[in-house]
Amino acid sequence: MNKSFELDRRALLAIMAAASVTGGIASAQDVAPSNTDNLVEEFELGNPDAAVTVIEYASFTCPHCANFHRDVWPQLKANYIDTGKIRFIYRPVYFDGPGLWADLVARCGGQERFFGIADILYDRQAEWSRAPTQAEIGAGLQTIGRMAGLDDDTILACMQDSENAQALVAAFQENASRDNINSTPSFLINGELTPNMSYASFAKILDEKLAE
User: Fold this and answer.
1) Residue at 3 is within a domain
2) Digit-coded pLDDT (tens) for 63-81
3) Rounded to the nearest 5°, which phi and psi values hold at 28?
């Protein structure tokens, strides 16, 4: 199921309210600070000077995103990112509180650990995201954080960072609205919006862009 969404303030406030069960991620305050540039860090891999930039919009609770990271991502990373052919940027989409919590945990590891934690989150998505209670979802995410070498105090501090959570939701709204993101995963390849696709289709587009 490719999830779609409407970017309205009520929905975003609902996400923030749902997130509060982890111990105060955020309250139902205004979720759109006037400037998020200094708060929201983007995570990227590959060659920053590459002629082709790929931006992925994805949610850690989206099954199709997990499928992409299982079936397409390993080849894409090995053949285009690790070889320096492209620059790859990951941008989060938030459909729900757990998706926000997961992103907070991934970000907790910084640039060095973000993509490794993201891999675990997608690999184990069916386990933590489908836990019967929100408390169990939070516990599952803490377990993943520990697997990545983070201690409990650090994980909880990241998950309960209200200012960061609000900035992330505001940045998500701005980015997704500007780039016309309506489903996940979606990709911008040198600014051109493309839907989810197989590795063969992805490689064909990238090779064409690289040959230009």
Assistant:
1) no
2) 999 999 999 999 999 999 9
3) -80, 65
Task: Give DSSP secondary structure letters for 8-61.
Answer: -HHHHHHHHHHHGGGT-S--SS----S--TTTPPPEEEE-TT-SEEEEEEE-TT
The one-letter amino acid at 124: R
Report the SS3 class of residue 181: coil
**Residue 92: its H or E element:** strand 86-92
* Greater model confidence, 105 or 39: 105
Specify if 59 maps to a domain.
yes
Higher pLDDT, 209 or 15: 209
Tokens 């970017």, residue located: 7
Its pTM stands at 0.84
Domain with 138 in it: 9-22+33-211
Q: Give the CATH number of the domain where residue 199 resides.
A: 3.40.30.10
Considering the domain boundaries, does residue 117 fall inside one? yes
Segment 163-182 shows an average pLDDT of: 89
